[in-house]
UniProtKB/TrEMBL annotation:
<protein>
    <recommendedName>
        <fullName>Macrocin-O-methyltransferase (TylF)</fullName>
    </recommendedName>
</protein>
<dbReference type="InterPro" id="IPR008884">
    <property type="entry name" value="TylF_MeTrfase"/>
</dbReference>
<dbReference type="Pfam" id="PF05711">
    <property type="entry name" value="TylF"/>
</dbReference>
<dbReference type="InterPro" id="IPR029063">
    <property type="entry name" value="SAM-dependent_MTases_sf"/>
</dbReference>
Amino acid sequence: MGDNTRSVVASVARIYRFALLAASLPVVLAEYFRPETGAEYGVGLVDKVVLAARMARNNVKIQTGSTFLEHLVIATKVLTIPHEDDGSLVECGCYKGGSTANLSLVAGLCNRPLEVFDSFEGMPEPNENDREHVLVKSEQIHTYDEDAWGAPIEEVQENIARYGDVSVCTFHEGYFDRTMPEFEQPCVLLFLDVGLRESAETCLEHLWPLLRSGGYCFTHDVKHMEISTLFFDGDWWRETLDTEPPGLVGAGSGLGLHPEHNGFGSLLGYIVKNPESSVFEMVAEDGEGENCVEVVRKGND
Ligand SMILES: C[S@@+](CC[C@H](N)C(=O)[O-])C[C@H]1O[C@@H](n2cnc3c(N)ncnc32)[C@H](O)[C@@H]1O
């Protein structure tokens, strides 16, 4: 194939992927645009359209490791947290502040503080297990070096002041194992985007006990098997936090947000702390009915 043909094929593929993404938005953002989402905070349709547009714009303006669609999925959950549940949003790993700027916008709308943890000088020296991560869904191996993803705090704060709401942010500068033990505030949502299993362990060890029941823990590393498996590691959870492992929605492949070469996926997954399973639907796998299952009890019955 000549260079010209290759570039035409690449352009057509890009346009096709973009069209697929646009067509899937009503599904992916259905919960975000539901009238109840944000109603408790007085956030209506116009606010949501403006927020989505600002987030999309920020994703272009700031070099960012996550996407505005992933930020909107997190924003959706922030807008559904009951108003009376006090607590901060926490971001671990902000790089240049692209995800932080977007989270700060929704934090501002909901009048919640955003606590930002980062070394602001990049990754610590990875240990033997973190030097290489396997991403089976993407058929990739990711490698890390000390100082990768470094961005100085001044640059991050400038980006957030320009594109987000810096007034809701508190910055905790330094490696997590030094800054997190001092932090004691209740939290309603955690966003971990830390790259290393060891860093994820430090975040969960210190922040999981501060997360309210019903609160959300998002991770942006779900395709990394080394990190996804942490959420299922019974020995680690029992020894470190005296609790059973919570599991992870999207483990291995991520929430289906972006068209990829082998189906929809993303790097984003989440878990709810102590979900209220009494309101879940009960479904009998009896091999009968539509899709061979029967709904025995509807949610909220
Ligand atoms: C992948 S980047 C975050 C990307 C960012 N959330 C975005 O969407 O652009 C990972 C960040 O985690 C930080 N980090 C990882 N491990 C850390 C640790 N143990 N202590 C402090 N910062 C850490 C790095 O400095 C880096 O900024």
